[in-house]
Protein: Cytochrome C oxidase subunit II
Organism: Natronococcus jeotgali DSM 18795
Amino acid sequence: MNIHTYEKVWLAASMVLIVGFIATITYGAVGPGVSMISDDGGSIDPSEINDDERFEETGVTHVGGNEYEVAVLAQAWSYSPDEIEVPAGSEVTFYVTSPDVTHSFSVVGTNVNTMVVPGQVSEMTVEFDEPGEYGILCNEYCGEYHHTMEGTLSVVP
Ligand code: CUA
């Protein structure tokens, strides 16, 4: 049987599309991609947050040199702490988790922007070179007072 030339072209084109789709999905699944959630901090049982040494006491801890760790609880509808202060020139690692529903922890004007999922600890490290003040916002709809969930991060001279 003789296959018409156009039919061959269409067959080839559809094969290219199928391979392309599979490649796209594969790349999305195993490639570097963009992660919505930083869960580098590992998992945590929401009922045992207070037993985790990082969240026993939320807030800023100086770990040496210019390095700081900040433990934050994102909960309906506030951050604990809601005011964070670190010195300029510091390297800050945030650990953020939620005891209730999914929130986000977004430091406006920086690349700190992660979902905060109950059961996961989001971890990210950022350097703050210049003094300044940043807003902290929840970008993930979390209920009636979602819009009131905010805080400030001050980088002081
Ligand atoms: Cu928390 Cu929106």
